UniProtKB/TrEMBL annotation:
One GO-annotated biological process of the protein: carbohydrate transport
Protein name: sn-glycerol-3-phosphate ABC transporter ATP-binding protein UgpC
Protein family membership: Belongs to the ABC transporter superfamily.
Topology of this chain in the membrane: Peripheral membrane protein
Domain ABC transporter: 4-234
Record organism: Phyllobacterium pellucidum
Subcellular location: Cell inner membrane
Domain of life, source organism: Bacteria
Swiss-Prot/TrEMBL keywords: ATP-binding, Nucleotide-binding, Transport
GO molecular function: ABC-type transporter activity; ATP binding; ATP hydrolysis activity
Name of the coding gene: ugpC
A GO cellular component annotation in the UniProt record: ATP-binding cassette (ABC) transporter complex, substrate-binding subunit-containing
Length: 238
């Protein structure tokens, strides 16, 4: 676990500014959701935190350490994407073990990590199956399993549920929250879905066009929206 901080972070693509001075403080163990309309810069912020995108100005800190310039593999984080492409020719166990194998971890350590992760996710009986033999929800769990086995300090989720049907989406929200309650890993979760944000977050960051409009607990944003954008986006009656 670790705290995460964005301090006056900016990002331009060419001459086009997309992140325009963002400050966010995330406490150790917190579940924070970045929410806002499509194109407002949520994925870019997450990708900068992961080290998949350079930052143009400002500082990002993980556990107090400035990570600007560190490669993704030098940051102790794991990311779950919307398109959780599993390797189709590998079993569930091998999919989950893949990043550990890449790092050269011995088989004994791989087993020690994959088994409990599979248990937490209800995948123990599916370890020898292939992705095509799984339901959508099971595949999503394998994608999360790949992140969990790395036991990172921070989890990043980018719209992990947007490809699932409505019923499964609701069930997976609860599962991800339970997982967080169990592991207490600092989590930064991106969605454009207000309901997902309101039901899952400890703290919500409302973004709009490259800036942060407001940061607060779900009820705080609902009761005291800072402006009309937050009010209309969150759906509160201001
Ligand atoms: P969100 O995840 O909130 O939908 P993004 O972070 O993906 O938004 O994108 C924010 C803005 O940055 C958008 O206008 C998008 O078109 C632009 N953008 C994202 N990635 C690139 C890129 N690699 N090159 C140029 N523009 C980009
Ligand atoms: Mg996005």
């Amino acid at each position: 676990m670790a705290s995460v901080e964005f301090a006056n972070v900016r990002k331009s693509f060419g001459t086009h500014p997309v992140i325009k001075g963002v400050d966010i403080e995330i406490a150790d163990g917190e579940f924070v959701i970045l929410v806002g309309p499509s194109g407002c810069g949520k994925s870019t912020l997450l990708r900068m935190l992961a080290g998949l995108e350079n930052i143009s100005a400002g500082e990002i800190r993980i556990g107090g350490q400035v990570v600007n310039g560190l490669a993704p593999k030098e940051r102790d984080i794991a990311m779950v994407f919307q398109n959780y492409a599993l390797y189709p020719h590998m079993t569930v166990a091998d999919n989950m073990a893949f990043s550990l194998k890449l790092k050269g971890a011995p088989k004994s350590e791989i087993d020690k990590r994959v088994k409990p992760a599979a248990e937490i996710l209800g995948l123990s009986h599916l370890l020898e199956r292939f992705p095509r033999q799984l339901s959508g929800g099971q595949r999503q769990r394998v994608a999360m399993g790949r992140a969990i086995v790395r036991d990172p300090q921070v989890f990043l989720f980018d719209e992990p549920l947007s490809n699932l049907d409505a019923k499964l989406r609701v069930a997976m929200r609860a599962e991800i929250k339970e997982l967080h309650q169990r592991l207490k890993t600092t989590t930064v979760y991106v969605t454009h879905d207000q309901i997902e944000a309101m039901t899952m977050a400890d703290k919500i960051v409302v973004m709009h066009d490259g800036i942060v409009e407001q940061i607060g607990a779900p009820l705080e944003l609902y009761d005291q929206p800072a402006n009309l954008f937050v009010a209309s986006f969150i759906g509160s009656p201001a």
